Amino acid sequence: MDENFRQYLIDGQRAGMRYVLAQPPGAPRGVAGSEMGKSTGSSLEFMDHREYIPGDDLRRIDWSAYARSDKLTVKLYREEVCPHLDILIDSSRSMALGGTAKAQATLSLAALLAEAAENAGYSHCAWLAGEGCQKVPNGAAEPALWEGIDFEYEASPAESLQRLPPAWRPRGIRVLISDLLWLGDPVGMLSMFARKATSVVVVQLLARADVDPPRHGNVRLVDSETRLHQEIFIDAAAQRRYRRALARHQQNWHRACRQVGAVMTTIVADQLVRDWRLDELLALEVLKVA
Amino acid sequence: MPIFALPLAFLGMLGVPAVVAIYLLRSRSRRFPVSSLMLWMDQQRPREGGLKVQKVQTPLLLVLELLAVACLVLAATNPRIRRQMLHRPLVVVLDDSYSMLAGGDDSPRNLAAKGLKEHLASGTARPVHLVLAGREIQVLGEPIRDISQVAPMLKKWIPRSPTANLEEAIALAGVIATREARVLVLTDHPPQQDFKEGPLEWWAFGRQRPNVAIVNAARTGGRGAGRCLLEVANLAQDPQRASILIRGLTDSGGAKRLDLSLAGGEVRRLLLKVTARGQPLRVTLGDDTLPIDNEVILLPGADKTIRVRLIVTDKTIREAVTRALEATGQALLTDKRPELVITDSATGGTGRLPGGVVQEPWPVRIIAERDAVTFTGPFVMDYSHPLTDGLGLEGVAWGAGKSSRMPGAPVITAGNVPLVTDTQRLSGVHEIRIQLRHDLSTLIESPNWPILIWNLLRYRGSTNPGLQRRNVRLGTDVVLRMREGAKDLRVLEPGGKTRELSLRGRTVAIRARRAGLHEVYTSKGKYTFAANAMYRDESDLRASRRGKWGNWLDEKTLRVEYKSIAWIFLLLALAALLGHMALLAAASVGMPK
Predict the structure, then answer these.
(1) Which chain A residues touch B37 with a CB distance below 8 Å?
(2) Do B36 and A225 touch (CB under 8 A)?
(3) Do the beta carbons of residue B399 and residue B436 sit within 8 Å?
(4) Number of helices (H) and strands (E), helices first, in chain A?
């Protein structure tokens, strides 16, 4: 693995020390542990009442309420869960676009989220969307120990998921870090990604060059993944068209996220690595300041 | 073939690579890696552009721009083409001097003729006047109006003159030519001064060549033995060897050969004894680049002995006259058929002439006036008179009578006192009168006295029939005094050509136009003279050059002979620019909004 990548992970891990992974609006569901789940369980934290159904545990009957109402109700307690974060890293070439901080931001953000998850008591696992979705070696350990990360994949994470669907831990939080710049209906991919997940976060990581089209003049655009090129003359109209296309694409993804119950934000890589401000994730309550 | 009046404007062609460079730089594309082309798929491809500096794909716009630049540059050079059917007269001055024959087939004459034919065949010069520039200027035939007339006319151009009077010929050309005419000089040497644009062009076809030539030759002694003087010059920078063959030194006719080694520029003088009587002396050098100056023919001089009868009573005068006559070697003191009678009688006859005298002698009277004074000058002389040739009377004391009346035209006077007079009678006889008191004079003791006697003899001899000289230089005149009643003068030139000369009086000047022996036939006799090409300057080929000077293409020529076609290129440039604008307009319409 490129040594720079390891430094990126270390930087992200260091930045993640300030954050804890927040419970997303959908409470995490998973194996019983130290966290309160959304469902009822056997913890001591009262959650709600319901009518007594024969067969309920008699110890759960709220006798005080019976005394007041002559109705048999049982107390519901929050379940205890062990929350988990799966981070899916898009390892296509576009995520390491030359001349940008995209690779750095991708790995640093993944490491930051892993560290924030650790701070919140979550377990985590990093996945790489390449030839298939495969776990990053040492992906469950601290990010500085992750291995085998490269950005050589020539297709999209959607293809990776179809080719080799990963064995996600159910009822965990899943975060996709990708630039989302591929053709295709995102709903299908997101549906697969969000299956049996408690919460899905889609982080669109774009370089400044992805957001702002090149300046005026004749340019030869080279696709970093397919190596195809296109000659084009950039003027103000072309720039407007590009921005509109990007906005449409983002709207499409937002719509798909809403459809599957995911949340989506866009982060500019160059800006992230400059000041490590994650206002977008804080606003979405994906992260909290520790 | 068009000409360009302002060729400096071609510097504008530097704009062509500039346009190409701008086009290439403008068309250069920046490489820009992107994450995906999916967001650019609806963008329009550029009509132009490519990799950084790729080969020019000749888009139409670039072609039109280059065409416009090229046409504007060509228009700026003011291109002109010759007007159709426009003829301008041409006067060609042909160097007629014999140095034009140097080099045989490769001579300047042949090269000039060839160059002239080519020029006339390709140009619009009509009519063409040919002027021969030799010692005299001569217009060669009628003006040429058709190209077919050129070759026959040029055949008449055979340079033999000892010199070429090109300046006079050019002046004559100016008289012949109209205002629109041009003058072309064909020669073998450069002009004395350079000249630029104008109606005169100077074409030289000469080449530096070494030449050994006989530059001087003379023969003394009449029909008797004498001597021969030869001067052979090596007209070259480097030493040359020359072999001279001399025939006719002796009556036996044998030849003598001399081998000379001459340093560069050396003139070797040879003095040879001639014992042959009456036959020509032929001196020949070996062949070299200019044959005409390699041979001279020297005829024995004509017998110029004048028979003189002395009737002088004064002893001093008689002795002085006798001494002077003997010194000339051209006087025969005799009483038989005298041609000159020298007497000290002022009025008396010249004595009874022996019977059978056909020709009346000239009396020369040396008159001693009793009442005389000494004149010490200034003396006034008629320098056109043959008697005064070579006289210098400064410091001479001349004793003579004081009377201002002496018959005859004054030849020498002291103030108004005639000292020498000449009276011409109707018969043609000249009576010379000389006033002289030898006791009051220093004339007899001065060199002027034998000179005067010499002039007297020669003056008398000039009226005798025959050639004044028998050996002349090429191009000069030979004066022939014919016998009384002679008619039909015909000259047979070397080479066999004969020409008839008209006679006015008894004296005729015959121009020696060719080198070699000339024979003159009259009804009263035959005469022979030899003409030799002995001109050192003409034989010196070291100054010969090849080149062209002058330029007819002046402003007047441009205006008269050529018409401008710049407007064609301007129209082409305009069409290219309009096409360029139309293409750009079409491109902007086709661009998506």
Answers:
(1) 221, 223, 226, 228, 230
(2) yes
(3) yes
(4) 9, 12
Contact indicator for B435, B460 with CB cutoff of 8 Å: no
- Give the pair of three-digit tokens for residue B67: 């065409």
| CA distances, A256 to each of A86, A162, A173, A188, A191 (Å) | 20, 18, 18, 9, 9
Which residues in chain A are contacts of B45 at CB distance < 8 A? 230-233
Nearest CA in chain B to A179: B35
CA dist., res. B246 & res. B214, Å (int): 12
ipTM confidence score: 0.79
Q: Looking at this protein, which amino acid is placed at residue A73?
A: T
From chain B, the residues in CB contact with A252 under 8 A are none
Residues of chain B in Cβ contact (below 8 Å) with chain A: 27-40, 42-46, 48-51, 592-593
For residue B83, give the DSSP letter. Answer: P
Q: Which residue of A has its CA nearest to B31?
A: A220
User: Contact at 8 Å (CB) between A57 and A76?
Assistant: no
- Kindly report, residue by residue over B219-253, the tens digit of the pLDDT: 886 555 688 899 999 999 999 999 999 998 887 77
Other CB atoms within a 10 A radius of the CB of residue B48 amount to 17
Contacts of B53 in chain A (CB under 8 A): none
Report in angstroms the alpha-carbon separations of B371 from B260, B374, B400, B475, B488. 65, 11, 8, 52, 54
Asked if A246 contacts A213 with a C-beta cutoff of 8 angstroms, the reply is: no
Q: Does A236 touch chain B (CB under 8 A)?
A: no
pTM of the prediction? 0.54
